[in-house]
Amino acid sequence: MHNKIQNSSILITGGAGFIGSYVVEELLKSQPARIMILDNLIRGSYDNMQSFIDNPVVEFVQGDIRDTALLEKCVAGADYVFHMAALRINACAANPRGGFDVMLKSTFDLAELCVKHKVKKVIYSSSASVYGLAQHFPTPETDNPYDNQTFYGGAKIWGEQLFRSFKFMYGLDYVALRYFNVYGARMDTDGKYTEVMIRWLDCIRDGKAPLIYGDGSTTMDFVYVRDVAKANVAALLSEVTDQSFNVGNCEETSLKQLLEAILKVNDSALEPEYREENTVNPVSRRLADNSKAKNLLGFEPTVSLEEGLQELSQWYFEKKKATELSI
Ligand SMILES: NC(=O)c1ccc[n+]([C@@H]2O[C@H](COP(=O)([O-])OP(=O)(O)OC[C@H]3O[C@@H](n4cnc5c(N)ncnc54)[C@H](O)[C@@H]3O)[C@@H](O)[C@H]2O)c1
């Protein structure tokens, strides 16, 4: 296959973030001429970029995608764009107007600039949130998005539709990737909405009973972050355009099963404690059907939940130890 990455110039918005930093590492394997990262570090960090920040191919611009003049400077000269900068689902719910500015207006500005500067292809980070509670399990891309109730999911649906219309009107090539529940080393560990996996790892470390809110039957499809980065690169390399793809691990795991798996990889015999559910989660099931990505992009996940949890646990405990030593 013709290597589109070699000698090309690539912009990654949100490239200092969790998934974006792995996409940079994956791209660097194919010798691009330049990778420009535009990130305001609201959630991204220098720690995430440690493996490549000193690479002369990588140019980090600390700035905001809402700064249209800066965004234009970054888009100009890019052959390809990965659009990953976004607010998280809870941040959108807490501040929908902020969500509008980042997820809708700036995505529109970006699409317009990509047309103006003749970007050859955009890879857009969408989400399984577009489905709300899906109609089918496993969920194919043809399930409709009308059950989504979140601003974040709505913004991602709109983003996909924005790029579809720009393909139709201006010929801008794009692929949208609907990630399921992405996890792995470098995931958020300190934020207000820290993922349940990290809270449980803290319990294991401190020998405290891990808490499950509700009955633990809610299911998710946990896909390892390195696999998600591979899906991004596959979407760029393929000739496919104007399509959305699920990116999951195609395994349905309940919170109860997830806890059992985390306890197992850490040789822990802790017993969970159940608490009344304190948030309303309208999505009780997630399970991806990846067959479209397998057939058209040649993408298949490679990291099992056990392997991924092992890697995550090791990274997290080492990080904690390093922080303690530095205090
Ligand atoms: N993590 C998941 O489970 C998941 C699932 C579905 C979709 N996604 C999508 O994947 C993409 C990457 O997510 P992630 O998990 O790496 O999240 P992340 O928060 O780690 O990465 C997003 C990055 O965007 C940056 N950013 C946010 N607002 C910005 C702005 N206004 N200007 C410049 N930079 C800004 C943040 O600093 C961060 O580094 C996002 O679009 C997200 O919606 C993630």
In words, what does this structure look like?
By secondary structure, this protein is α/β, with parallel strands linked by helices. The model has no long low-confidence stretch (mean pLDDT about 95). The longest helix is centred in the last third of the chain and has 22 residues, at about 305-325. The chain folds into 2 domains: about 10-180 and about 225-245, 3-Layer(aba) Sandwich (Rossmann fold), CATH 3.40.50; about 185-220 and about 250-285 and about 305-320, UDP-galactose 4-epimerase, domain 1 (Alpha-Beta Complex), CATH 3.90.25. It has helices at about 20-30, 70-75, 90-95, 95-115, 150-170, 195-205, 225-235, 255-265, 290-295, 305-325; strands spanning about 10-15, 35-40, 60, 80-85, 120-125, 175-180, 180-185, 210-215, 220, 220-225, 245, 255, 275. The protein contains 10 helices and 13 strands. The chain starts with 8 loop residues before the first strand and ends with a helix. The strands form 4 sheets. Strands 3-2-1-4-5-6-11 form a 7-stranded parallel beta sheet, with helices on both faces. The chain has a two-stranded parallel ribbon with strand order 7-10. Helix 1 (about 20-30) crosses helix 7. Helix content is about 40%, strand content about 15%. Bound molecules: nicotinamide-adenine-dinucleotide. Nicotinamide-adenine-dinucleotide binds near residues 39, 65 and 87.
